Amino acid sequence: MGRTLWPVAAWLPIVLACSGGGGSPGADSAGADGSVSDLLADGLAKDGDSSKPSGDIAEAEGAADVLPVPDAPSDGRAEIVPPVCMEGTGGSPILADPDETFDLGPYLMSPTPTAMTVMWRTLDAADGLVLFGKGDALDRQATHPGEATVHEVVLEELEPATRYAYRVESGGIQSKVHHFTTAPDAVQPVRFAHFADNQNGPEIFAQHVLAMAAWGPHLLVGSGDHVQAGLDEPLWKEQLFGPARGLLHQVPVQLVVGNHEENSPFYYQLMANPHPADHPEWESHFGFRYGNTYFLVINTNYFLCPIGEVELPDGQHMRELAESPEAQSATWRIALGHENAWSECWGDGDCGYDGTLCLRNYVVPLLADRGFHFYLAGHTHAYERGQAANMVHVIAGGGGGSMDAWCKDWPQTSVVHTAHHHLRFEAGCQTLRMEAVDLDGNIFDWVELDKDAPGVLQDQGPIPDLPPPTLNSDR
Ligand SMILES: [Fe+2]
């Protein structure tokens, strides 16, 4: 399931309006002169090496994202008012009340400022209708043609950052009334939560869901292994859509394919990700813009590294997304993949995996060169954070699977913690803050970036007391 790639033309007005803050690929990266690989190899870009904001940046505070005013049209049309970033991400607690009317859902995907995709699954093929409207109204409707078990209806011509009510009707049955909020305009702050490797720990994942709901994200993103075995169809409900049901009624989600998804057809049936019509496999390998943040979703099961000098199609697709106007005009760029570049944890005394070479030597340097701020991964069931060439890399594999044990040191990694956790981000006009939260609600690590000062601006620093790790043999 899923829609085709959002046309670049649809973004052009936004990109043109934002071009004053976008810059060319790598413009924000200190390693853009080709020295990134050297930095990574040497492990020079660690916490403590971060740049401090300059006087120029301080002067710019308060004027963030105030875009140049275009010349007034000479043909009598009204003057175009450029968008201005309004600081603050809000975030009201969400009551995650599961509605079990249908087998799965309704859940929300592919959010834009003017559209939202509503999906649900019925046990038998049925028609599908969504009633929706601003506030609490249900005065509009949209439907899909024919009958289906996995239903996908796109609500269009919506207003940005606006709360809508909706109710699903299918096979003569009605869901409860739910609400969502559309994505904000392209320069506005966003608030999102991240989880990974929840897989065979649905009870733990359910605790994360409640905590994320209480925090009130605009968007959920995940770095894979969201089910233990993707080809085992019931697990998609038992381990992902069931535990998260109450939150997914109200907050859109976009998810990465990990190794445990097994590149299953169920992923492609149940997701609605933008992709080119002639490349259905890229529904797991895509990018999208949400407010001032661009998300690049990488399928690390694909061959992303060149062979010699020859760039392979999946690697080319990833690079072109990273260099796209939607990515480069964003205030913040976040890459999401499953496998990680540097892993300090794995088996107890057994580093059978210590990161993925292709990510370490090619993907991470490429993204850093193009001004990405974070690479968020899973695969290793632990929390790890470091910095490489001004890009923060985080392993956040604490969604529910049993935890890994520390087994080696990497100079590119500075913080390790072996406890279940999820991440939350506030992507503001000037700063981006990430917090890592454990099951007790403790913020055990945090980091803050300034958009005008590449690298980490401030962070938590070392974590003194690590809990004893448990041996994991099931990643
Ligand atoms: Fe995993």
In short:
The protein is α+β, with helices and mostly antiparallel strands. 18% of the residues lie in helices and 28% in strands. Strand 21 (421-427) and strand 22 (431-438) form a beta hairpin.
What does this structure look like?
The protein is α+β, with helices and mostly antiparallel strands. It folds into two domains: 114-181, Immunoglobulin-like (Sandwich), CATH 2.60.40; 190-459, 4-Layer Sandwich (Purple Acid Phosphatase, chain A, domain 2). The protein is built from ten helices and 24 strands. The protein has helices spanning 8-22, 36-42, 55-60, 202-215, 235-241, 245-248, 265-270, 313-322, 325-328, 357-369, and strands at residues 104-109, 116-126, 129-134, 140-143, 148-155, 163-170, 173-174, 178-181, 190-195, 219-222, 253-255, 286-290, 293-297, 332-336, 345-346, 374-377, 383-388, 391-396, 405-406, 413-417, 421-427, 431-438, 443-450, 453-459. A seven-stranded mixed beta sheet has the order 11-10-9-21-22-23-24, with no helix packed on it. A seven-stranded mixed beta sheet has the order 12-13-14-16-18-17-20. Strands 3, 4, 6, 7 and 8 form a five-stranded antiparallel beta sheet that branches. Strand 17 and strand 18 (391-396) form a beta hairpin. The longest helix is centred in the N-terminal third of the chain and has 15 residues, at 8-22. Residues 2-70 and 467-473 have low confidence and may be disordered. Bound molecules: fe (ii) ion (FE2). Fe (ii) ion is lined by residues 197, 199, 225, 260, 378-379, 381, 397, 401, 475. Fe (ii) ion (FE2) binds next to loops.
